[in-house]
Amino acid sequence: MTAAVNPSLAAQAADALLARNAGAAAFFAAAAPAIAATSRAMAERFARGGRLYAFGRGATVSDAQHVAVEFVHPVIVGKRALPAVDISCFDATAVATLLGPDDMVIGVDLPGGNAEVRSALESARTRGNLVIDPLGGTATAGLVAAAAAFVAQEWAEVYYHTLWETVHVFLERRPRGHDVGSAAFLYPFLGTAEQDDTGLLDEVAASILIKVQDDADLRRQVAESEADAIAAAVAILAERVAGGGTIHVFGNGGSATDANDLAFDCVSPPEGMRPIAALSLASDAATITAVANDVGNDLIFVRQLIAHARAGDVVVGISTSGGSRNVVAALEQARKQGLPTIALLGYDGGEIRRRGLADAAIVIHSDYIPRIQEVQASVYHIMRDLLEESHAKD
User: Fold this and answer.
1) What DSSP character marks residue 186?
2) Fewer CB within 10 Å: N-end or C-end of the chain?
3) Beta bridge mates, 279
4) 121 with 107: CB under 8 angstroms?
């Protein structure tokens, strides 16, 4: 299906993207020194064998998942896998059972607060473990309290992305050199020289602000080039939701966590917003691993669409490359089932855009995955807000 573009809706999308930039700049101007210092402390603990535990509740379970995948499977070539795990399936009291002396706990607590997240963090702090609280710093407290939940969560994502990026900087600059672990034979040029980290904290803090500016520049580009596509996507979603349809969303890795977040934002939205039926096909580990094991990874989303999707539903694929084979296959399957398709993409849109597999394709024109994902989060949160506004006008 082809959705007519509503100029007013496109203008709202563009304005919402641009409006995010000032708040992000203010937040990270205050938070960057703390991120740099925390990164150095984390590098020291990782070097001693520490593990990072990520904990979330509600919408921030997806953030805990995102933290884990970024540290274990970094997208920067040559960086070692660092031990991190999402423990949101446990209650707050179980966190203490897992913690060793060099371990760390990160928890994202959105405005309004979550008692279990706070309890998990305080338990770790009492034991002397390193606690990372992206939205809990005193320097940023006023900004967080005044922010909408979606915006604050976007700040948290940039926070933990820059955290894992800069942890690797400090690991490489440790006085004993950089240990790339079991991947050392692939990167013999790393870890051979001792380096001094004097002044590095200030350099890292400055680099974080550059990354935030990169996001701001990307949001401007998206506001200029993709506002019509965002409006078209919202129109498709609104039409399907109004008819009682379900949104099926999926992606891999960090995009899987974004799919989980979007589904949660639909089903259990912030106060004052109506619930919308949505399923993340990236959330069921048993089904995903069964299909991947038995018939192949390319079909993990296809199989679920065959089982779940009904006439009147809509499909949303998220891929930073635009070429993930299982996302491509799922969009092809959606077409076979007569379902409209939406895609959130990076780079140049890849195969999905070239083949026209999405009725609305929103492309973040960047070749760096963390920045793509950060701006994609802004886009799907804005889509969710505009979907709510379209309902209110009906």
Assistant:
1) G
2) C
3) 248
4) yes
